[in-house]
């Protein structure tokens, strides 16, 4: 394992920001991660079979820490989100809300002498060191304000504060990733606590601690999801302490009502903090409340719900409290398609869309988040099937249309036209919005079923299975199935009860092939198809990524149901 990750660190130098995409060793790195994943599965099996061997945890911890330490000093592979984190941290450190101005507005502020004082502070920050100016120039989609919630922003600010002044760019990157890895390591510790609470072999901690996907997305790429994953896992552990008795407790004595309530309050607070780090943990709040009703009664459950809502509102308030002002960016963005599909990193100081931005006016507080929620699509499968079967394709050449369309053009056009007339949406926005409605309803049905089953079973393992399945199916139904989003569910994989779920941590790494296809095959169609580049990935590779896996999942579920009935 060390050898593989040492090779990955060595190859990561060829992914520096200025390196042309066509020269990046994407296939080589993908192959190394595939090899690491195969070894990881073997190691997981060995660790589980080792039971409670006293030397197991030190070995797991040593390898987990050393592999993260190696990747901490690597160049982010095909990722640029960390530059946004570092700039947001600089904005926070200078006392300016990162939700107020877009990075591009800061870059353009130097051309206008009459700028607001807070924007002037950001301009000063930009000019304080070459490294910070480089960071600002590398922020992806710089015309949009940040989408990252305040708890994560606090971590970004801490990273900025703990970075020595006048540090070079590499130091800024290492310090930011070190904070991300800190939360990552805490997650491993909490997973071990959960495994001990449920009397599962601690070897199961390898499922997260040694997972190549987790190592790639946190220690290498520095994705902020590590913060939310850590806080969510902590919240779930506190739910266990509040609602269930540890299976290894002597005489299996339940916690007192008072102790359970305190743990429940702590769980509500940490789940709210997780929502403040990244919004997705809010989907677990109904499970928290309903199980608390069952275990603690309505009055105490109401208290927990109030605590969760109060803390969530408090930590998210900075993101939603900015005054909504009309800016030309919002109007221009509605008329201009956002190229969220581009695999190329942003080019610093591009002139594109600069003229459409008011360099002095603060942005509407939700523009970046609204853009993300209403337009972003990436690596999706189920959402792709729905949305493409709702999108009119009359203007798309027949050779470039998705091969899996089963609806008629007349029906699609009729639906889109009617809904556009009934709503404020444009015809281009309707298919996405309608697909989100369908997938959201499907998720609501599934989440309700998982919650009902956990309450009916009234057992800790069924509760944790409901946690996992809620997060897993939420990800599977998203329009943006970034591989690092799958890390939300990985801590609870030991309770999945289906081996097929383990494979997703490796299959999602195929996402990075999209970049290789965009770099090497941008124009001529791939052999035996009409698609090239990223379109080939979207319409062909995603089927290889998810199609066989869904068949495996369905077959495993059917076999299990037959065995239960027998």
Report the radius of gyration as a whole number of Å. Answer: 24 Å
Give helix % range: 55-70%
Low-confidence stretches: 250-254, 323-366
- Strand element count: 0
* Count of runs of 4 or more consecutive helical residues: 24
Estimated share of beta-strand residues: under 5%
Tell me the span between the first and last alpha carbons.
43 Å
The largest sheet is: none
Series of secondary-structure elements, N-terminal to C-terminal: HHHHHHHHHHHHHHHHHHHHHHHH
What structural category arises from helix and sheet content? mainly alpha
Oligomer: single chain
What is the general shape? globular
Overall description:
- This protein is 62% helix and 0% strand.
- The protein has 566 residues and is mostly helical.
- Helix 3 (56-72) packs across helix 11 (212-220) and helix 5 (103-109) packs across helix 6 (117-127).
- The longest helix is centred in the last third of the chain and has 33 residues, at 533-565.
- Residues 250-254 and 323-366 have low confidence and may be disordered.
Topology diagram in text:
Blueprint: H1 2-12, H2 26-49, H3 56-72, H4 81-93, H5 103-109, H6 117-127, H7 130-137, H8 150-161, H9 169-197, H10 206-209, H11 212-220, H12 225-243, H13 257-277, H14 285-296, H15 298-320, H16 328-335, H17 367-375, H18 382-388, H19 409-422, H20 430-457, H21 460-476, H22 500-507, H23 513-520, H24 533-565
Helix pairs in contact: 1-2, 1-3, 3-9, 3-11, 4-8, 4-9, 5-6, 8-9, 8-13, 9-12, 12-13, 13-14, 13-15, 14-15, 18-20, 20-21, 22-24, 23-24
């Amino acid at each position: 394992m060390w050898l593989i990750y040492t090779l990955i660190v060595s190859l990561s130098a060829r992914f520096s920001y200025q390196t042309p995409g066509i020269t990046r060793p994407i296939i080589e790195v993908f192959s190394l991660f595939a090899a690491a994943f195969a070894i990881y599965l073997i190691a997981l099996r060995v660790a589980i079979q080792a039971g409670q061997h006293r030397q197991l945890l030190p070995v797991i911890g040593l390898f987990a820490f050393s592999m993260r330490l190696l990747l901490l000093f690597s160049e982010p592979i095909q990722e640029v989100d960390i530059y946004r984190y570092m700039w947001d941290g600089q904005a926070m450190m200078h006392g300016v809300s990162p939700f107020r101005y877009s990075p591009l507005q800061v870059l353009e502020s130097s051309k206008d002498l009459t700028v607001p004082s807070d924007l002037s502070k950001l301009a000063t920050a930009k000019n304080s060191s070459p490294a910070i100016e480089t960071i600002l120039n590398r922020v992806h989609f710089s015309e949009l304000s940040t989408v990252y919630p305040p708890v994560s922003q606090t971590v970004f600010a801490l990273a900025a504060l703990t970075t020595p002044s006048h540090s070079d760019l590499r130091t800024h990157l290492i310090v930011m990733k070190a904070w991300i890895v800190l939360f990552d390591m805490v997650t491993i510790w909490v997973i071990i606590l959960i495994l001990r609470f449920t009397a599962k072999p601690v070897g199961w901690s390898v499922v997260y601690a040694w997972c190549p996907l987790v190592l790639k997305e946190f220690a290498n790429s520095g994705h902020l999801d590590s913060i939310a994953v850590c806080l969510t896992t902590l919240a779930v552990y506190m739910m266990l302490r509040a609602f269930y008795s540890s299976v290894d407790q002597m005489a299996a004595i339940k916690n007192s009502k008072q102790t359970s309530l305190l743990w429940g309050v702590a769980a509500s607070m940490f789940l709210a903090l997780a929502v403040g780090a990244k919004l997705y943990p809010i989907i677990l709040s109904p499970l928290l409340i309903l199980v608390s009703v069952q275990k603690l009664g309505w009055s105490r459950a109401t208290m927990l719900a109030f605590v969760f809502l109060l803390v969530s509102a408090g930590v998210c308030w900075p993101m939603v409290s900015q005054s909504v002002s009309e800016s030309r960016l919002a109007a221009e963005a509605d008329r201009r398609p956002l190229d969220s599909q581009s695999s190329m990193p942003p080019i610093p100081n591009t002139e594109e869309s600069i003229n459409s931005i008011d360099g002095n006016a603060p942005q509407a507080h939700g523009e970046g988040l609204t853009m993300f929620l209403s337009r972003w699509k990436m690596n999706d499968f189920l959402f792709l099937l729905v949305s493409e079967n709702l999108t009119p394709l009359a203007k798309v050449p027949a050779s470039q249309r998705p091969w899996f369309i089963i609806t008629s053009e007349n029906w699609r056009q009729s639906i889109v036209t009617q809904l556009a007339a009934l709503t404020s949406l444009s015809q281009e926005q309707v298919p996405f919005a309608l697909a989100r409605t369908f997938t959201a309803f499907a998720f609501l049905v599934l989440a309700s079923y998982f919650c009902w089953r956990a309450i009916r079973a009234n057992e800790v393992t069924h509760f944790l299975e409901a946690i996992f399945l809620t997060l897993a199916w939420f990800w599977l139904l998203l329009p943006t199935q970034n591989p690092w989003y799958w890390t939300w569910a990985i801590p609870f994989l030991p309770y999945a009860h289906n081996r097929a779920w383990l494979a997703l941590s490796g299959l999602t790494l195929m996402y990075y092939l999209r970049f290789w296809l965009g770099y090497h095959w941008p124009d001529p169609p791939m052999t035996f198809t009409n698609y090239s580049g990223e379109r080939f990935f979207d319409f062909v590779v995603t089927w290889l990524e998810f199609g066989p896996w869904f068949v495996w999942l369905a077959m495993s579920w059917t076999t299990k149901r037959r065995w239960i009935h027998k």
